[in-house]
Amino acid sequence: MEKRVAVVILNYNGAEMLRRFLPSVVEFSPEAEIVVADNGSTDSSVEVMRAEFPTVRLICLDKNYGFADGYNKALQQVASEYYILLNSDVEVTDGWLAPMLAFMDDNKDVAACQPKLLSYKEKTLFEYAGGAGGFIDRYGYPFCRGRIFETVEKDNGQYDNIADLFWATGAALMIRSADYQSAGGLDGTFFAHMEEIDLCWRLRARGRRIVCVPRSTVYHVGGATLAKSNPRKTFLNFRNNLLMLYKNLPTRELSSVMRRRAILDYMAAAKFLLSGNVGDCKAIIAARREFARIKPSYASARAENIEKCVCDSVSERVTFSILWQYYAKGRKLFSNLPGI
Asked: Which of 31, 90, 111, 340 meets the CB 3.0–4.6 Å disulfide criterion with 179?
């Protein structure tokens, strides 16, 4: 009998991650079909899958398409009511799927949800990549319940309530296949980083909800692909964030927000330069140049998003600047932010 849920792990040169974490997914996900989509790995990933996990479905893509388009291409080959996009460096727990599946079944207006994401290395802490669910500020800066910039909170149950979000982490994202396809999936141009926030923005603007279901808990290694200070990651984060803003901002805000973002970006570049981090400084400048170069090709995507928008504003996109709250006001915990 075909299963309603497919847990799809996109793998690139992660043979050791598969050995370490795939057994927990197989053991604790009886409700789901488990799929590993190999993104053109050059290590022993495919051989490991065939020899050590013969019961797990393997999809072999012909090259590395990145996180975004890799998932798009893999999910074209998966038929299920729900997809779960799961990073290869996530340890799941007994019963992790049931609370999310029950919530999605009971709330048809919810397009996607995430579990509580804790650190694999320090299991009492939230994990950087998603915590207990994500938000963005007026200028596109993301933050989470449990993590603002580099400040990561200890999990004391303070975010154990089911909450509406702006975005759910791509490290463990449960989404209705119909919503994924109708919204156009992840933006393949992004390659990696910010792609799940962009997808969630499109869904929220079209009236669909995104939530965290914290009764479900997983543990994420994080940073397994690129180090936080890697200039390539800096480039992708800044370029993709600008593309996301251009694609999704309401017309009345577009000019003012993009002007202020330019100032903030060059301030960030100057800070990197003054601290001796020339690589990240150059990455920000390169990201802005690349954004300017490819922006015209996104005009039709922006027009489609604006046309399909059904709400004047997305409430989980806060009106304040998280930079101001964090650095000027000293509000480093999510619970200390105004109006949240």
From this structure: 111
Give CA angle at 209 (92, 336), nearest 5°: 75
Contact 82, 181 (CB under 8 A): no
Lowest mean pLDDT among 109-118, 220-229, 299-308: 220-229
In three state form, how does the secondary structure of 103-154 look? HHHHCCCEEEEEEEEEECCCCCEECCCCCCCEEECCCCCEEECCEECCEECE
How many angstroms separate the CA atoms of 118 and 125, rounded? 6
pLDDT at site 339: 83
Please give the angle made by the CA atoms of 252, 254 and 260, to the nearest 5 degrees: 120
The answer for residues whose C-beta is within 8 angstroms of residue 59's C-beta and 6 or more apart is 35, 36, 37, 38, 74, 77, 78
For residue 226, name the pLDDT band (cuts at 50, 70, 90): very low
Instruction: Detail the DSSP E strand segments found in the chain.
Output: 5-11, 32-39, 57-61, 82-86, 90-92, 110-119, 134-136, 142-144, 147-148, 151-152, 163-164, 172-176, 209-220
**What's the DSSP call for residue 325?**
I
pLDDT band for position 96 (cuts 50, 70, 90): very high
* pLDDT tens-digit map of 272-295: 999 999 999 999 999 999 999 999
pLDDT at 225 over 50: no
State how far the Cα of 163 lies from the Cα of 11, in Å rounded to an integer: 30
Q: What is the mean pLDDT of the chain?
A: 95
Kind of pairing between the strands at 32-39 and 110-119? unpaired
CA distance 108 to 51: 40
Q: How far apart are CA 190 and CA 194, in angstroms?
A: 8
Residue 285 has a CB neighbour count (10 Å cut-off) of 15
Please tell me the predicted confidence (pLDDT) of residue 222: 83
